[in-house]
Specification:
Layout: E1 2-9, H1 14-24, E2 31-40, H2 49-61, H3 66-81, E3 83-84, H4 86-99, E4 107-112, E5 115-116, E6 122-124, E7 131-135, H5 148-164, H6 168-172, H7 190-199, H8 204-212, H9 217-234, H10 236-243, E8 249-252, E9 257-260, E10 266-268, H11 272-283, H12 297-307, H13 313-324, H14 330-346, H15 348-351, E11 373-376
Helix pairs in contact: 1-5, 2-3, 5-9, 11-12, 11-14, 12-13
Bound molecules: zinc ion (ZN).
Length: 377
Amino acid sequence: MLKINLVRSADCNEEILSDVYNLLKGFQGPIVFKEHSEFVHILGKEPSPESLEKMVEYCSLEPPSRMARESINFHDRFKKRNTVSWEQIFKACAKFRFSNDIGDDEFVILLTTYNNKLNWFSASNPEGPRDHFVHTEDWDFFLGSDRRFPIAYQIASGILKKLVFTNYEDLGAHWHHDPRGCMLDFCQEKAQVTFKMRTGDICPDCLKLFSSRGVPSMVMEQVFRIIDGIRLQMIYKNRFVINREVPAMLIEGRQKNIIFPDMGNLMVRLNPLEKTLYLFFLNRNEGVQISHLSDYRDEIFAIYSSISNSDSQLAQSIRINDLVNPLSNSVSEKISRIKRKFVDALGDDIAANFIISGENAAPRRIPADRSLIRYID
Ligand SMILES: [Zn+2]
């Protein structure tokens, strides 16, 4: 087994790490990925993303206080101006290895938003340890959640390169400076990476080289499967225009996470109230008018209390009463927020099947064919 520890630096959002992990864990084999919930500090003084999120959430509820406003501005400024050295990045990896007692044979992959001084998209530690960083930003070619594709590609190819090549000189001698659509094409622009991702190929020269270097064939095979899988999932949205094949949706676990396995285990993240509303409409195939929601108050409350355990019964009850109150705007707002999240993740065409649809006084319903939806524990 080859263990790959995925971790992020404090500046990097936990959602991107978890999206990438969900994508990679779909490919089984000797390479086993582990997602770490803790984060490392490259500079040692960044505000944590969690504290920032709380601040943003707070500001959306209340008029922002001066302190909160300054903290957000501080975070943005902080993020933009930071360029760090490879030494700083790999020092953070070493610290993480030490505090988590990670063996030398395991990989540590660090996701970071910070620019690095040499401006590489991803790189492994030239000093030898199996540390690797991937830059998570400026993949502008990829929209929203699709950024997980190039990041996962950099991880998979980074692992293989580390196993094949002894050092940067060795690697440098084998880069293809003329693009062949191979993993070893040398790309100077992030957009060029899409070419090799779309071919998902390894050229015959590299195949020969890789197998001559004694990398276990099962490991190589898994990397190839990941790269090929990324290629197929990347073009899923494009193919949909022609084949109209609506992806299956999985509702997973007690948290009832909404996942699309055919799209690389893509997760659509709804907060507990949005998820409650969504699951309710999913149960009600025939649809329900917004003004009638209060008739279903107990059913909606039961869904909410099954997925949210952080609040008292009373607090949960107040939230649901507000949600179903025909005089409040709460439901309409939530329906449009849910719609936005699905569109961002799936694109307009595919999302149209899964959003809560309907106009004005007409019943709202989710059009998706219910046979595409599976619930698993
Ligand atoms: Zn090649």
